[in-house]
């Protein structure tokens, strides 16, 4: 970590302090967003902050700042550092819980660190997902609680869990999931999953090139017929998936639609820089 914004000022990580009384520490109450930069500008900054505020509302957290103030703090932090960054914006539960109004005294803080992209081999060869019969407690909220994503994860750095409650595929542990069968792309609908910023960009791009998009939960039983699959996220952008559990997807290699959508995403990325 290279820089923090906490208690109204920018400080080094060694100076960034939260009291142990904050409910983000004592009870795991908090929401956050991960935002990457591209060419020194924040990617999809406003949609991320809008989702942060939606998550705060869902969690009964009363934000101390408006979206405009948060946006300027993020931009100032980016301007203070060199290189591409991963920015994490948090709203904690604070020290006060009012049984009528909720968490009325939250803390707003931001961390800025060097952006680390997935290895090139992940894009060239694809990755594996491990299906689990489970789902996130509140899919519409990006909570700090990632316990399931870590504890259910296989002991494999190349694998991520795939939530499949009752055989319906919703999302992976850290990403949105897409399954391609022929010329149809299926991805779980809102509010069954988090409103992924990259997810929406890919849906829009797919429709521009007349790829049929169905917002429904793909099924585990569809995997043998699938031609390709991929996951999306703010940092990874689009990562090809070549295996889910023991099921090989398509021919076991990243598919043409995955590559085309990735190229389109990079081609249009300027549209989402702030």
Give a written overview of the molecule.
With 274 residues, this protein is an alpha+beta fold. It folds into two domains: 3-114, 2-Layer Sandwich (D-amino Acid Aminotransferase, Chain A, domain 1), CATH 3.30.470; 120-272, D-amino Acid Aminotransferase, subunit A, domain 2 (D-amino Acid Aminotransferase, Chain A, domain 2). Helices cover 24% and strands 28% of the residues. It contains seven helices and 16 strands. Strands 9, 10, 11, 12, 13, 14, 15 and 16 form an eight-stranded mixed beta sheet that branches. A six-stranded antiparallel beta sheet has the order 2-1-8-5-3-4. Strands 6-7 form a two-stranded antiparallel ribbon. Strand 6 (97-98) and strand 7 form a beta hairpin. It is globular, with a radius of gyration of 19 Å. The model has no long low-confidence stretch (mean pLDDT 95).
Quickly list its features:
274 residues, alpha+beta, D-amino Acid Aminotransferase, Chain A, domain 1, 7 helices, 16 strands, globular
In short:
By secondary structure, the chain is an alpha+beta fold. The protein has seven helices and 16 strands.
Radius of gyration: 19 Å
CATH superfamily of the largest domain: D-amino Acid Aminotransferase, subunit A, domain 2
Q: Give the rounded overall mean pLDDT.
A: 95
- Secondary-structure element pattern, one letter each: EEHEEHHEEEEHEHEEEHEEEEH
The helix fraction, in percent, is 10-25%
CATH topology of the largest domain: D-amino Acid Aminotransferase, Chain A, domain 2
Tell me the span between the first and last alpha carbons. Answer: 22 Å
Proportion of residues in β-strands: 25-35%
Quaternary status: single chain
Structural class: alpha+beta
Uncertain stretches:
none
Number of domains: 2
Number of helices: 7
Q: What is the 3D form?
A: globular
Largest sheet: 8 strands, mixed
Q: Which CATH-level-2 architecture of the largest domain?
A: Alpha-Beta Barrel
The tally of beta strands, per DSSP, is: 16
